[in-house]
Amino acid sequence: MLEGAAVTAQLTRDRPALPRVPALAVLEYHLVGYRRTWRAGAFSSFLLPTLTVLGFGVGVGAYIDQGVGGVSYLEWIAGGLLASTALQVAISESTWPVFGNLQWQKIYLGQRSSPLRVADILAGHLSFVLFRVLTAVIAFLLVTGVLGALRSPWAVLAVPVAALLALAVAAPTFAYAASVDSDSWLAMLFRFAVIPMTLFAGVFFPVESLPLALRWLAYVTPLWHAVDLCRAAVLGVAPQWSVIGHLCYLAAWAAGGWLLARRVFARRLVV
């Protein structure tokens, strides 16, 4: 009996200690894995947005002589595409990776068997999603700067806005991906939420050109609020709506999504 207790005590002493912020251990796990796979994600997070800027901003913009609101189409669309890039990367990293960590690789279950709490697992993975979004957005900002699409040094403020948008959409998507029982539901999310949101939330054309009913649907989406802020920062003008109102709305999405995701994760991981 005493010998068994001594062995247990020795194993406890030899176990690597968690960092003072346990979520950092989860973030480190995802970063180590990403070090081996970053090339595969370079197309979706960097090359694809760059091609979109060239295709729409330069290609389509060449046929829009008068521009939009007194600026060239390339300059006008840059802020919207930056916010859309943050949305696409955040949701891509919050759907199949979350579903796979629960259903296929069982990574979350292994992490839960350690001293990590549910909140640590969730915060660590969300931090990795935030890292992915920030790297993609900064690269996108550099590309648009090279193309001459940034009219104001205030464009750097689009980066924290994109980060807040990422949390606003990633947190509820975590909850959704953890609650479905088939990955086909993830494809439905892209088909009926992400794509319509990208098309009608002011990324490619002014929301004011939509019918009133669709316009209000666009205003409800978190993407429109980020698009308005990012476009204002890139152009160096005031946004259409209140800055505080935009930020509070996005923060409410992030906070509500966190609470919902934590509840779903707790139900799936706590035995």
Automatic annotation (TrEMBL):
Listed GO MF terms: ABC-type transporter activity
Biological process per Gene Ontology, one example term: response to antibiotic
rRNA-binding among keywords: no
Subcellular location: Cell membrane; Membrane
Annotated transmembrane regions: 40-64, 121-148, 154-177, 189-207, 243-261
Key word Transmembrane present: yes
Keyword terms, alphabetized: Antibiotic resistance, Cell membrane, Membrane, Transmembrane, Transmembrane helix, Transport
One Pfam family cited in the UniProt record for this chain: ABC2_membrane
Membrane disposition: Multi-pass membrane protein
Segments forming domain ABC transmembrane type-2: 40-268
GO CC annotation terms, alphabetical: ATP-binding cassette (ABC) transporter complex
Record family assignment: Belongs to the ABC-2 integral membrane protein family.
Cited PANTHER family: NODULATION PROTEIN J
Descriptive protein name: Transport permease protein
Lineage: Bacteria, Bacillati, Actinomycetota, Actinomycetes, Micromonosporales
